[in-house]
């Protein structure tokens, strides 16, 4: 495999994680991005590495694999680039899910029972234990669960650390380089035309986040990855107020829903700098990046129900981004069946930070025909949700 050339299209956290895996495996890796590294979705979300919001199934398995890998990856990065690894702000702080209605409590209890059978650690918190763990959370709760495996990173720093490790292993980064079209020969992609000229390679990895659908269309092999908008409020730095990632039991329903209209649920966490991040929303509005007051206010109302103490706390800013969404809510990891040499890794929706390292590991194992850490079949490209809706046909010679 030495001497095999790979171009990773997109330098978000997913592309950076893929570049690192492939460069460490000895491939000649070039990463291209039309902007700067980690400047798109990866810089517009939060950094939760969660198992708690996933029910039994392939996405949970990928989350468990990624959760095992994160500390190993960061230890390996730290051996070469201590400063970059420290900047990641890895915090295995655990998550707490709080129900505030009887129906929510029943659903949370049922959901957690399923997760336990899949190996997720959960602990029921009674009122005293919850008050000890989160002194400022509402007392009006009907159930609470602790998920000790949930963790947090600073997402852009995490992408930068993965990229720095890839570059240290020989990868090359090209920024301000937009991929425009594919060059194909005999059903194989042999190059991409970019705003800075032609790039030839043996393999190409579409890691363009929410733009993966658009990019794959430019390459002539469309996959159905769409944007799903999310917004977050950021408070001014506060004295310690929130000690875990704390969210309302409704959140799991919002994550799994395919509704296009506004969905909000309270997701609250602190950062090392003291600001509290208050999320989040889900809307399908294409790439409309306007902040909407009614969305921000709906997020705030739900957060105050969970943390009444946040009333009166100044909000310093708000931001949002576009989660890369696949209609069946599963990422895509694998070779394109229509265009030899093209691979796709994306569609992680609201979990791409956490799932990046496991996805990159699977990509490397599939590319190099190695035994895989888990069954990759559920993430294959040729499933109806990915190739349906007009995305199924290859457009030859899309130069
Ligand atoms: C509000 C919000 C909260 C979130 N919270 C979390 C969380 O807590 N935990 C979690 O795990 N995930 C979270 N996410 C999701 C996470 O941010 C994404 O899943 C992840 O960042 C996707 O990474 P990516 O590398 O696939 O995409 P991106 O970071 O968008 O990277 C794709 C790159 O491709 C480049 N590109 C696109 N088209 C082209 C082209 N034609 N040519 C060259 N380059 C191109 C772009 O410039 C971009 O840099 C959240 C998202 C949002 C919006």
UniProtKB/TrEMBL annotation:
Alphabetized UniProt keyword annotations: Oxidoreductase
Domain of life from the UniProt record: Bacteria
Stretches that traverse the bilayer: none
Annotated PROSITE patterns: PROKAR_LIPOPROTEIN
Any one GO cellular component localisation term in the record: cytoplasm
Keyword Oxidoreductase on entry: yes
GO MF annotation: an example: oxidoreductase activity
Domain FAD dependent oxidoreductase: 5-366
InterPro entries in the cross-refs: FAD-dep_OxRdtase (IPR006076), FAD/NAD-bd_sf (IPR036188)
Name of this protein: FAD-binding oxidoreductase
Organism: Streptomyces malaysiensis subsp. samsunensis
């Amino acid at each position: 495999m030495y001497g095999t050339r790979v171009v990773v299209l997109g330098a978000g956290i997913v592309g950076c994680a893929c570049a690192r895996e492939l460069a460490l495996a000895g491939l000649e890796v070039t990463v291209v991005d039309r902007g700067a590294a980690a400047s798109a979705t990866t810089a517009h979300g939060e950094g939760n590495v969660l198992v708690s919001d996933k029910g039994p199934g392939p996405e949970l398995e990928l989350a468990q694999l990624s959760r095992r890998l994160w500390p190993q990856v960061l230890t390996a990065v730290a051996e070469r680039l201590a400063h970059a690894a420290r900047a990641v702000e890895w915090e295995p702080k655990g998550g707490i899910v709080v129900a505030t209605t009887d129906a929510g409590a029943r659903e949370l209890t049922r959901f957690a029972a399923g997760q336990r059978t899949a190996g997720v650690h959960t602990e029921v918190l009674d009122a005293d234990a919850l008050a000890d763990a989160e002194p400022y959370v509402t007392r009006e709760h009907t159930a609470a669960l602790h998920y000790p495996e949930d963790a947090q990173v600073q997402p852009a720093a995490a992408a930068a650390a993965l990229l720095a490790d890839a570059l240290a292993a020989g990868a090359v980064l090209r920024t301000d380089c937009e991929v425009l079209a594919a060059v194909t020969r005999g059903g194989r992609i042999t190059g991409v035309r970019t705003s800075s000229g032609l790039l030839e390679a043996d393999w190409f990895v579409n890691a363009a986040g929410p733009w993966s659908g658009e990019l794959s269309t430019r390459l002539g092999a469309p996959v159905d990855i769409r944007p799903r908008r999310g917004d977050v409020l950021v408070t001014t730095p506060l004295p310690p107020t929130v000690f875990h990632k704390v969210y309302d039991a409704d959140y799991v329903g919002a994550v799994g829903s395919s509704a296009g209209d506004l969905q909000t649920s309270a997701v609250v966490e602190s950062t090392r700098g003291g600001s509290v991040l208050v999320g989040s929303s889900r809307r399908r509005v294409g790439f409309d990046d306007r902040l909407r007051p009614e969305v921000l206010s709906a997020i705030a109302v739900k957060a105050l129900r969970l943390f009444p103490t946040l009333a009166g706390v100044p909000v310093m800013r708000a931001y949002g981004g576009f989660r890369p969404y696949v209609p069946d809510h599963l990422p895509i990891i694998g070779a394109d069946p229509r265009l030899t040499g093209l691979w796709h890794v994306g569609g992680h929706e609201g979990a791409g930070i956490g799932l990046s390292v496991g996805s990159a590991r699977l990509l490397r194992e599939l590319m190099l025909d190695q035994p895989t850490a888990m069954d990759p079949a559920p993430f294959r490209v040729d499933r109806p949700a990915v190739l349906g809706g007009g995305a199924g046909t290859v457009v030859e010679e899309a130069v």
